[in-house]
Design a protein that fits this description.
Elements (H helix, E strand, L loop, with lengths): L3 H48 L7 E6 L4 H20 L6 E4 H4 L12 H8 L5 E6 L2 E3 L1 H8 L9 E3 L1 E4 L19 E2 L5 E4 H13 L6 E2 L2 H10 L8 E2 L14 E3 L15 E6 L8 H8 L6 E6 L8 E3 L10 H13 L7 E6 L2 E2 L2 H8 L9 E3 L1 E4 L6 E4 L5 E4 H9 L11 H11 L5 E2 L8 E4 L4 E4 L3 E2 L1
Parallel strand pairs: 1-2, 1-3, 5-10, 6-23, 12-13, 12-15, 13-14, 16-24, 17-21
Antiparallel strand pairs: 3-8, 4-11, 5-8, 6-7, 9-18, 15-20, 17-20, 18-19, 22-23
Helix pairs in contact: 4-6
GO molecular function, one term: glycosyltransferase activity
Pathway: Protein modification; protein glycosylation
Function: O-glucosyltransferase that transfers glucose toward fucose with a beta-1,3 linkage. Specifically glucosylates O-linked fucosylglycan on TSP type-1 domains of proteins, thereby contributing to elongation of O-fucosylglycan.
């Protein structure tokens, strides 16, 4: 006779077999239910796609291009990629537009002034206006599948959603109680407006002019305008609009890196001018010297006081608490007329600007010194009412010698020594027909973007 414990196990065996049989049956049924759910979901997606079936010819691609030759080349490469993918699908070709060719008006890069043109020209035969940057990579098949999920007869504002983690000065401390509630698109991932929304925004633009004096962060300001204080449309997040490639479902991607254009510019071909004043000689200049100044081939510190221990150059311009226009134009005159004939590039920075000279040398290798290049982080002033673009000075301003020649040959000058130098330069170059060339590698107030969550974190360090 078996011991009690062993006898108990033998008696439980039929029950155990019954339990295992039930568990297996349940697992099979559960898997069938999951399979049916997946099939149902796929059929639902398929039904939506069929209902919202669109052809490539119904998408207008707008590449946010610039007129500088380097940027035109990149935009043309993206255009050809879109057209080649479209041809491989044997569909009728879509319309692909380069933004800098659409209008000569100064504020075309801010997009909103062009919406009436898109409404008049494309609303009859198109469903979507898709915007992208020149470095955005687009997978046409995935993009079509993505857009087919959204009814083009309705108003849609689609994009990869970003939000602020904390209220920031560049967004005028909007939504300060909870900055995370407001979503705005990462333009590098691409973003789309349905034609009904374009038409609605056009009516609003015709009835009331754009109110913003300054254009600082375009992606945030576009989203604010479309949201219209809660009376308009919020951004609809689209996971297929990507920056980093996180899966095969991505319709777009974007690589944020230095462009590769051959050998970097020699450090001797860049002259760096640091604007300072006597009160900052003791605290800011030592930091410049300890961090990046040693990487520069040519560098001078321009001040209101000659200090041989640094040394500084006294330009004879009194220090001002703001603006510094007189000092900046004196630097331009000195660069052009005093012993710098063979140096093709001038960089003007503040004494609290941080620079990677090595990265700057790689970047400048992409630009032609024979062209009038005015390069940096682009802001705008009064663009809705005939204003101008300018390079914000805190992130550094880069000039080709040809740009400086044309500027100083004109009669455009500071209206006072304490006028805002960056804005006066923007006004002057605009009058000369020399556009600002924008680079995302320059930062007045850097943003740290969490690529996974889309969180924007501000920083008080000025750098590029």
């Amino acid at each position: 006779m078996l011991p009690p414990a062993r006898r108990g196990r033998r008696l439980a065996l039929p029950a155990l077999l019954s339990l295992l049989t039930c568990s297996l049956a349940f697992a099979l049924v559960s898997e069938d239910v999951k399979k049916e759910a997946r099939q149902s979901k796929n059929l639902e997606k398929s039904d939506i796609s069929k209902k919202n079936d669109i052809d490539l010819k119904e998408i207008v691609f707008v590449i946010q291009s610039q007129s500088n030759s380097f940027h035109v080349k990149k935009a043309e490469q993206l255009k050809q990629s879109i057209l080649k993918q479209s041809a491989d699908l044997t569909q009728e070709m879509p319309t692909v537009l380069l933004l800098h060719q659409l209008a000569q008006q100064e504020g075309a890069w801010t997009i909103l002034p062009l919406l009436p043109h898109f409404s008049v020209t494309y609303s009859r035969n198109s469903s979507w206006i898709f915007f992208c940057e020149e470095d955005t990579r687009i997978q046409i098949v995935q993009l079509l599948e993505t857009l087919r999920r959204y009814d083009p007869s309705k108003e849609w504002f689609l994009g990869k959603a970003l939000h602020d983690e904390e209220s920031t000065i560049i967004h005028h401390y909007a939504f300060s109680e909870n900055p995370t509630v407001f979503k705005y698109p990462d333009l590098a991932a691409g973003w789309a407006l349905s034609i009904p929304l374009v038409n609605k925004l056009t009516k609003r633009l015709k009835s009331e002019s754009l109110k913003s004096d300054f254009t600082i962060d375009l992606k945030h300001e576009i989203a604010l305008y479309i949201w219209d204080g809660g009376d308009g449309l919020p951004l609809t997040p689209v996971p297929e609009f990507c920056t980093d490639i996180v899966g095969s479902s991505c319709a777009t991607s974007f690589q944020s890196s230095l462009p590769l254009c051959g050998n970097p510019v020699k450090k001797e071909d860049i002259f760096v001018a640091v604007k300072t004043c006597k009160k900052f000689h003791g605290d800011r200049i030592p930091i410049v010297k300890q961090t990046w100044a040693g990487q520069a081939g040519h560098l001078e510190y321009y001040s209101d006081y000659a200090d041989n221990s640094i040394p500084t150059v006294d330009l004879g311009i009194p220090n001002t608490d703001r603006g510094h226009c007189g000092k900046t134009f004196a630097i331009l005159e000195r660069f052009l007329n005093h012993s710098h004939d063979k140096i093709p590039w001038l960089v003007i920075v503040d004494d609290d600007t941080l620079i990677s000279i090595s990265r700057l040398r790689h970047l400048l290798s992409c630009y032609d010194t024979r062209e009038p290049v005015f390069l940096g982080e682009r802001y705008g002033y009064g663009l809705g009412t005939g204003g101008y673009s300018y390079v914000t000075g805190g992130g550094g301003m880069v000039f080709s010698k040809e740009a400086i020649r044309r500027l100083l040959a004109s009669k455009c000058r500071c209206y006072s020594n304490d006028a805002p130098d960056d804005m006066v330069l923007g006004m002057c170059f605009s009058g000369l027909g020399i556009p600002v060339t924008h680079s995302p590698l320059f930062h007045q107030i850097p943003e740290v973007i969490d690529c996974i969550s889309g969180v924007i974190r501000g920083s008080e360090v000025q750098a590029y």
